[in-house]
Design a protein that fits this description.
254 residues, alpha/beta, Rossmann fold, 5-stranded parallel sheet, 15 strands, 19% strand, globular
Length: 254
């Protein structure tokens, strides 16, 4: 299991040895997958990786956005009816669910679930945020793509999907369900997709909370790479459940 941002790349820059590691896994026919708390679709991630010289098939990529779509389809398709969904997230959510759900557009329509990404996303302007609050107060479920408080962007640190979902939930008195890392359902679904047993998996990631904690919860071994969020000094006071099995400087040591 390979995390993406902070492990294979940062912004649009490839991190050391990332293309070589992927090429080796493919050449040796190893079972592997790439995972991310991205609000984008696997297809869009594949295109982004290709621009950086990394070739990964969409079937080997699982994002928090994909996990949220899976959750919506599994939990709101009662009696064969298509889920009624309000997209407060991204184009990636629209790509993956278009034609499979009935899109809700106004506060007066029946709605099963709100999918919330980060507030900077194209489907989350202020007027749609207000519509989402009204729908939530009428009984719609709140699905947060991931529980990240913040995320790095070219503009600096921005409000993450988790912080945004909790804000909406507080306003509507609804508790969000999070589908991305470190949620157990995310890792279990990914293992099912690639026919892998968690105890036989190793995850390499850069974040103690979302990568290391999530992996260890389901019985995976976890390797921390120091190319992203976490620094070596962060390990000193980290609790046991956040301690990785190994620490590497970058993927040249993988």
């Amino acid at each position: 299991m390979l995390d993406l941002d902070g492990t294979l790349y940062h912004d649009d820059h490839v991190l050391p040895a990332a293309p070589e590691l992927i090429a080796r896994l493919v050449r040796e026919e190893k079972n592997f997958a790439c995972l991310s708390n991205s609000t984008s679709s696997p297809a869009r991630i594949t295109a982004r990786l290709q621009r950086m010289g990394i070739e990964v098939h969409p079937d080997r990529i699982y994002t928090a956005a994909a996990a949220t779509c899976d959750y919506a389809m599994q939990h709101f398709s009662e009696g064969g009816r298509r889920p009624r969904v309000f997209n407060l997230a991204t184009e990636g959510i629209h790509d993956m669910l278009d034609g499979r759900v009935d899109w809700v557009q106004t506060a007066g329509e029946p709605c099963d679930a709100i999918i919330a990404g980060a507030p900077a996303n194209v489907y989350a302007p202020e007027d749609r945020q207000l519509t989402a609050i009204q729908l939530l107060r009428k009984g719609a479920a709140l699905l947060g793509i991931c529980a990240d408080r913040v995320f790095p962007s070219p503009r600096g640190i921005e409000i993450g999907s988790g912080a945004f979902a909790w804000m909406l939930g507080y306003a509507a008195n609804v508790e969000p369900v999070f589908c991305g890392k470190p949620a157990t359902i995310f890792f279990e679904e990914l293992c099912q997709r690639i026919s892998a047993t968690p105890s036989r998996c190793v995850l390499i990631g850069d974040n103690l909370e979302s990568d290391v904690q999530g992996a260890k919860r389901v019985g995976m071994r976890a390797i921390l790479t120091l190319t992203g969020v976490t620094r070596r000094r962060d390990l000193v006071n980290a609790p046991r459940e956040l301690q990785p099995d190994m620490v590497i400087e970058d993927l040249t040591e993988a």
